[in-house]
Each structure stands twice: as structure tokens, then as C-alpha cells.
Amino acid sequence: MAENVFKLSDLKDKAPKLVGIPTGTKLDEMFYKLEYQEKSKRFVKQTLGGIPYTAVLNITGSPDTGKSVFVEQFAVVQASQGYGVLFVTTESPAEFLYPALKQKALALKQDFSRVEENIVIIDASQNDKLRENMQELLDTMANVIKYKKVKNVVIDSVTGLYEHKEVMARKTVRQIYNFLKKFRQTALLVSQKRSANNGGAEAAGGLAVPHILDGTIVFEKKVIESRWDENLYKMPIGSVLRLVRIEGCRLAPHASDTYVFEITDTGLIDIKKPLKDFIK
Ligand SMILES: Nc1ncnc2c1ncn2[C@@H]1O[C@H](COP(=O)(O)OP(=O)(O)O)[C@@H](O)[C@H]1O
Ligand SMILES: [Mg+2]
């Protein structure tokens, strides 16, 4: 027995506090917490002001839906507030990340010198060994987390770690998840979707990713291509409607609506309103 067996009361002080870690987008208001009020003996709903602390979330969607823009914005917002961020890139080489992160910092009117100091990048895009050897990647990440006081981790993308061996998806994701939990990180893991046809959380590698992680945020885009779409969305044919929703989170209650958002010219996520209000 012992090590993995707990009496419920033993866990009293072990649960992480439910606090919000800001992403700099309206998603921060879409997570809630329920405060129990002794007086009225009722739960009162309050916005969390961020994604739940220590959540490891799956950020999924087809190509070009805004996943990278979102996780980069999260990295910049956290770094600008003085928190260390580890950004693991398996796709875009590190030197391409620099201008993207700088532009976001400037657009958010944040001090870029501070952001620069607080973000550490592990570039696995150019290094097969880091991508192919999980232990080597985790050891490198552990060093950065310990010595740079990292609180937040972004991996863009985890799909890049099991690209040509999808049977490994579950094991890979489980290892990373356990690692991030051990280091009490708040983390966004981007996973790619194979096709635009499947609207749910399922990522390349099957359901491994959404089942293991604490929650999923789905990014989508819809091209207006018929008279019907044109009338429904009041947008011209050929234009693009971008959508985002939280599809489950086991750490905090959340809005379940689909929201309309835009990517601004300066590369920021701007969430507008629920789709149901947008089409009214
Ligand atoms: N700095 C930027 N300024 C304007 N648009 C941008 C900027 N960065 C990305 N975009 C646009 O955002 C869209 C989504 O990009 P991205 O987040 O990279 O998609 P993915 O979901 O594949 O990661 C793309 O159409 C891209 O052109
Ligand atoms: Mg991307």
C-alpha cells in the first residue's frame, strides 16, 4: 500500500489552489470558480481570470486556426508579468519565434526587454534527437524549469513529437503530462487535427491527447462559401469566420458556448462574442 494510497482527508492541503493564470484573451473570463457561501449555503459563480493554475491543456485545431497565435500570446502575457515561460518548439525554428513574440509584446504594450528575459526556448524543430528521444527532451526541460524559475510551459506542438509513430501518442503525452504535473507547471500543449471534418477534440494520434490532459480548447475556422452561410453569418462569401470553445476541463467550470474571434493585424487573439449572439 502506502505510497499511492490516500485517505481523502490526507489530501486536504495537497490540492492546488484554484486561481486563474491569464492568457491575455477573453478566455480568461470563460473559466469560473464556485465559492461556497456559508451564510446563504449556496455556491456563487466568479470568473477565474485565466486558465486554471497547474492545468495542462490541449490546444487543438486544423492548420491555420490560430493555435500558435494563442499560445504565443499566453507566453508573452505571462513573461511580461514576470513569470518564467518555457517554450518548446517542434515546428517553427526558434529564430522565427522571436519576431512573432516581439510583435505581440509591442501590440500588448508590454516591455519587450522583460519578455525577452523571461522566455526560454527549446528548439526541437532542428534537433532530431530532442524530438525522437523523450528522456533527453524531458531532462533538458527539467534543467530549464529548475534553473530559470519556470512556471508555464508551452509545447507547439506535441504532435511533432510523435509525427511518424502515432501508436506512441498516448505514451508520449502521458509522459509529458506526468512530468508537467510533477513540476507544477501551467501548460498549453498544441496538438494538430488531421482534417477539418471532425469538429471535436480528437487530435492526430486519436483521443489520447484529450483524454489524458486536463481539458481541451478547440480552434476552428469556417470559410463562408454559400448563400446560406452568407445569410446566416452576415459575412461575404470567401471570408473566414474564426471560432473557439472550451471543450471540457476537469479543473474548473467553464463556458460551453462557441465564441467568435478575430486575429488582429498585429497577431493577437480578439474574442468577440458567443456564436449564438453573433448570428442573431
Ligand atoms: N503576426 C500576425 N499578424 C497577423 N496575422 C497573423 C499573425 N500571425 C499569424 N497570423 C495569422 O493567424 C492565422 C493562424 O495562424 P497560426 O496561429 O499560426 O495557426 P495554427 O493554428 O496553424 O498554429 C494565420 O492565418 C496567420 O496568417
Ligand atoms: Mg501552429
Descriptive notes:
The protein is α/β, with parallel strands linked by helices and 280 residues long. It has one domain (16-193, 202-278): P-loop containing nucleotide triphosphate hydrolases (Rossmann fold, 3-Layer(aba) Sandwich). Helices cover 30% and strands 28% of the residues. Strands 7-6-8-9-5-10-11-12-13 form a 9-stranded mixed beta sheet, sandwiched between helices. A two-stranded antiparallel ribbon has the order 1-4. The longest helix is centred in the N-terminal third of the chain and has 14 residues, at 67-80. The radius of gyration is 19 Å and the shape is globular. The model has no long low-confidence stretch (mean pLDDT 92). The structure holds adenosine-5'-diphosphate and magnesium ion (MG). Residues 61, 63-69, 103, 219, 263, 265-267 line the site of adenosine-5'-diphosphate.
User: Roughly how many Å apart are the termini?
Assistant: 58 Å
Work out the count of structural domains: 1
Number of strands: 13
Taken as a percent bin, the fraction of beta residues is 25-35%
Low-pLDDT runs: none
Decide which structural class fits the backbone. alpha/beta
What is the helix content?
25-40%
In the CATH hierarchy, the architecture is 3-Layer(aba) Sandwich
Any idea what the shape is? globular
